[in-house]
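User: Could you go from structure to sequence for me? I need the amino acid at each position, not a summary. Structure tokens:
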């Protein structure tokens, strides 16, 4: 939606929907939050949702459904094989993406599993603009390796580059020449990106990169999980695109790829996933993996009710009003925080607002997980749950030393159609307070460190009594009851 004009004040982002069903929230007082954080061993993944005021951990599987999505769920066709729901889903995807064949899967990483099992052999390379954790894990677990060829400028956290997810085309050509085209399993473009701050990829870059891959006979794969945000940015930021409809841009993008997969927990506002395959022979070769790992070919591990909701959700993702809401709220949040002096990833992207932890708390060494510590502090000082995206989420080097992350960020995800502008303003306010009191935040260390995916299940403790001191300062400003 182009911005709605205001008469007496600068415009604010506008919800193009109204609330019909609500979930009650509770704001625990800060001292109780400190107790809950201790019970969770200073790992925000271990918090109970009922103890969180504004949950900005992720946008995955927590986007709000529309009335029409919910209504569609009542019309699901229950069948192990041959469900009408599946055929409706296949037809809708073919209509939008122009790809005939569809493999259903229970979520995005299941598609990554199927694609990797099909293409990756030990020693093969998968080229990506940037990795996503699960996309990379499936490649490396099969003995493959990942080359990330996002342009260097894309990794500069604060800039005004409109498409920081773009691939460096010179690096792409050089990589293919070095590895040999026959050793490259596929080119995977993630549009939009996740781990570099929800930054988009331009259509021009996708076209150029896939042209190069095709010239070498390398299969092209699109991760469309965050496509709805990327479509918004192509329409609003890319030269020559503003007069094209979202549907036209989607088709132009899809036409570039042999395979398009998505997490339905993001794209389509539901829960599920799937993989569209252009070539019929390749599609039949891949079918076996669905029946082996996911479920029968006409549900792939998804509930038929969720599939019906997704069918409507896909159509809503073609609606510019609907897909504008996320990026516009994120832009508001980022811009306001920048005005407050908070070091944000700029320009604002999709998925969420991202804070540069190293700049917010430069006194915390990387080995004491600044982003993890700030995430803890944000729960203590506001009941807000963000996600650590930094060294804590990395695995140690083989010699046991820390693998220091390239970017150390806190992600405040904006699940679509969930939070109001006043909740967004509350988050801005508390982040500003934390920024002004950042010197009180200390580090974290593990008391129990699992070997893999340690950020999910690890137990931590503060390196001093900084949480008590921080909470005491917070209570001074906001009182005992908040
Ligand atoms: N690709 C991208 C770009 C993603 O962001 C995700 C998930 C996946 C694939 C995997 O999909 O979760 O359905 O298996 N991102 C979530 C997040 C987990 O919180 O950002 P999935």
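Assistant: Here is the amino acid at each position, in order:
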């Amino acid at each position: 939606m182009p911005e709605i004009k205001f008469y007496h004040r600068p415009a604010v982002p506008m919800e193009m929907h109204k609330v019909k069903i609500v979930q009650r929230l509770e704001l625990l007082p800060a001292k109780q939050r400190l107790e809950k954080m201790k019970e969770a061993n200073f790992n925000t993944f271990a918090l109970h949702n009922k103890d969180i005021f504004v949950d900005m951990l992720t946008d995955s599987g927590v986007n709000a459904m529309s009335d029409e999505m919910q209504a569609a769920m009542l019309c699901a066709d229950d069948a192990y094989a041959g469900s009408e729901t599946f055929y409706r889903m296949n037809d809708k995807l073919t209509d939008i993406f122009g790809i005939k064949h569809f493999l259903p899967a229970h979520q995005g990483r299941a598609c990554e599993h199927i694609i990797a099992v099909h293409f990756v052999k030990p020693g093969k390379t998968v080229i990506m603009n940037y990795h996503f954790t699960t996309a990379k894990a499936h490649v490396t677990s099969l003995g493959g390796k990942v080359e990330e060829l996002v342009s260097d400028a894309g990794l500069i956290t604060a800039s005004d580059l409109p498409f920081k997810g773009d691939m460096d085309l010179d690096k792409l050509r050089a990589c293919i020449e070095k590895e040999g085209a026959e050793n490259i399993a596929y080119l995977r473009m993630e549009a939009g990106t996740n781990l570099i701050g929800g930054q988009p990829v331009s259509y021009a870059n996708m076209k150029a990169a896939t042209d190069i891959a095709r010239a070498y006979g390398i299969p092209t794969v699109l991760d469309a999980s965050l496509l709805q945000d990327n479509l918004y940015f192509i329409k609003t930021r890319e030269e020559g695109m503003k007069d094209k409809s979202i549907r036209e841009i989607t088709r132009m993008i899809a036409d570039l790829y042999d395979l398009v997969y998505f997490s339905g927990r993001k794209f389509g506002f539901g829960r599920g996933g799937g993989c569209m395959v252009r070539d019929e022979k390749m599609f039949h070769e891949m079918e076996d993996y669905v029946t082996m790992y996911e479920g029968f070919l006409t549900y792939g591990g998804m509930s038929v009710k969720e599939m019906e909701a997704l069918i409507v959700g896909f159509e809503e993702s073609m609606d510019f009003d609907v897909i504008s809401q996320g990026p516009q709220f994120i832009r508001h949040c980022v811009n306001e925080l920048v005005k407050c002096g908070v070091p944000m990833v700029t320009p604002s992207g999709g998925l969420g607002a991202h804070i540069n932890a190293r700049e917010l708390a430069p006194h915390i060494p990387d080995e004491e997980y600044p982003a993890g510590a700030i995430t803890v502090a944000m729960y203590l000082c506001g009941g807000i749950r963000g996600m650590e995206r930094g060294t804590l989420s990395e695995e140690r080097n083989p010699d046991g030393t820390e693998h220091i992350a390239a970017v150390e960020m806190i992600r405040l995800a904006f699940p679509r159609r969930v939070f109001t502008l006043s909740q967004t303003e509350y988050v801005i306010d508390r982040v500003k307070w934390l920024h002004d009191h950042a010197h009180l935040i200390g580090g974290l260390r593990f008391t129990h460190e699992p070997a893999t995916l340690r950020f999910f299940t690890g137990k931590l403790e503060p390196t001093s009594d900084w949480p008590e001191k921080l909470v005491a300062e917070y209570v001074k400003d906001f009182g005992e009851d908040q």
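One structural detail worth keeping in mind: The domain at 68-316 is CATH 3.40.640.10 (Aspartate Aminotransferase; domain 2).
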